[in-house]
Model the fold of this input.
Amino acid sequence: MPELPEVTLYLHALGPRVLGERIEKLRVRSPSLLKTFDPAPSAIHGKAVETLSRLGKRIVMGLEDDLFVVIHLMIAGRFQWRNAGAVIPRKRGHAAFDFPRGSLLLTEASSHKRASLHIVRGEPALHQHDPGGIEPLEATGEAFAAALRRENRTLKRALTDPRIVSGIGNAHSDEILLRARLSPVRLTSQLGDHEVERLRSAMRSSLREWSARLIEEAGDGFPAKVTAFHPAMAAHGKYGEPCDQCGTPIQRIVYATRETNYCPRCQTGGRLLADRALSRLLRRDWPRKLEDLETLKRRPRPD
Done:
């Protein structure tokens, strides 16, 4: 699933191609993609793209007349930039945004169609799509500590809960926790102030470095095969391979459809995380389906 660095990459690539350009037409091939009916899809025809932004893991195109297009790529959704009027792929294609200089295709390489497209009018309607997590690159130390400690969660769950932290998912949480040398199942209530700040520092440096790296690798071309896994990652997807900090083989926890990768020497004091107590902990702290986590709604704020 594209996370903050991958969404940043898409925004970087889309900017010179669509900012200031008018959407000539939105072609929707897959009815399951479109989650709203008012405003109608035709309402965005002829409207210029005035802004591009990230809302959690969602990409937002701000258009004329206070219209917003909100796209959540979920696990397997991807963008492709093609010549104007390009045919939408029969099997994987969802939709196409036709611009004068090209067409932005939205595809999804999965039999489970989870990607979504919302068209809304006005900032209040757009705000409803924000689960409310803090921005990891903007939050102060105090704000981060408060968000982290609002509920007693495992660190893995806290980092990936969009109501707590915005834009981080399974892959980059593994990278952040390894860099911070903290266990993914450590409870937020157990962290001292210096550990919270160490986690915040690791989070900010990791996300910034990955965003810059992906943009540099893509260059001026439109990015292809964007995923939340990269061969240069230190933990995520590296089960059995040596940790780049200490050489210990990376281990993993598999629960439901999710996998957590960690270094036992750097993060858990040499202990392997595989016992019944851990299974009970994860059962309480994790939803079984990824989409359940991605559709969490903003918590009511206390008076």
